[in-house]
Amino acid sequence: MLRLRRCAAVMIDVREDAEVDLASLLTGGAPIRRTQSFKAIAAHLDAEVAVDPREIAALGTLSAEVYALPDDEAAADALASLWRKRLAIADTDDDDAARADAAVRSAHWRGLSAIAHRHSRWSGVFTPDTDPDSYARSLSGLVARLGQPPEAAPQRGDREGRTMLPRPAGSGVNDLLRGRATCRNFDRGRPLPLEVAASLLHGVFGAQHAVTVPAGAEVLKKLSPSGGGLHPTEAYVLALDIAGLAPGFWHYRSKDHALDPVRMMPAAELREFALRALAGQDWFADAPMLVVHACRFERSFWKYRQHAKAYRAVILDIGHLSQTAYLLATELGLGAFVTAAINEADLERVLGLDPMREGPLAISGFGYRSAAQTHPEFDPAHAVWERDGEA
Ligand SMILES: Cc1cc2nc3c(=O)[nH]c(=O)nc-3n(C[C@H](O)[C@H](O)[C@H](O)COP(=O)(O)O)c2cc1C
Q1: Is residue 339 lining ligand 1, measured as CB closer than 6 Å?
Q2: With bands split at pLDDT 50, 70 and 90, how would you rate the model's confidence at 121?
Q3: Which terminus of the chain has fewer Cβ atoms in its 10 Å neighbourhood, N or C?
Q4: Domains and CATH numbers, the chain
């Protein structure tokens, strides 16, 4: 007999499938047959698991913390089935599921956030936006399919009492902000000089100072804010075409301002992998340098244990890093982008990451703009293309 406990975080999703019921239709009955089913969605399993009401009831008898011998004979079959489906873990288990469940626990995930994180990861997805025939390729296509979106700028307060505001005078930061536009046209033949890559990495991810508190913990000062000052985001560089740097995956050591090799790869193979990591977005895959933002959840959640806001905060951190990256790239005369449409699970495999301890959440990319504008960019004021004079 196994001593069991249930996995750390699991939700039961009630599904409804609709099928045309021809037999019923021909005899004047309801044309659609609806059937309900249950899926267990767990923070330690990539796949959803079909469960029945007996298994759901049995799951409710198990402690999440304490391993125990089942004492309800009637539920023994259902518990054994939960164990086979890896929703119940035995104290002697040492397989992938048991290790993944241990990672959810030791990283102090809040259950719902953990489930949302694991099940929003992609592997092998090519986004519909990359299909030339997809309605999602243009705003007009989207409107034709989905109708008008909610208005761009909503009216909320009392219009009668409106106060018009003075327009801000120009400034260096304002000019920089105006000169930023997401780049979807990189010059594939132009490598990124190592010192330019280094400058970006130093500004976006580099530790400007390191302070050790008397209790021993080290605090890093960086140029972007970070929830709890913990800076949990690691940078993995895909060196596709950086002068003087072998193609492959490098980890940026923020304290030392150095790149450590993680996995080298022939350039062509790395390009292919980059396209896959970017979910098929070929307009981004031409960039000579990609940076994977991977969050070390266990560092942030060390402080924010099972915290309702913690997962939101680490994602916000990456938004700040991305904007810092955009601005520094703009100042350096580079094009930049960020995307969350990535195949995280494929990246985790290559980088050897456990997604519940350290997970990729976004990719930024950098490089010189190409003269040709093949893919659309959003620069209505022509602050980018006319200023550069290269378009
Ligand atoms: C979180 C986030 C995710 C994004 N993901 C994508 C993406 O998957 N593909 C893409 O082409 N652009 C992506 N973008 C870029 C936006 O499309 C772009 O910011 C927007 O169109 C406004 O253009 P601008 O950045 O030039 O002002 C993303 C931007 C952000 C902030």
Answers
A1: yes
A2: very high
A3: N
A4: 4-106 (no CATH), 175-388 (3.40.109.10)
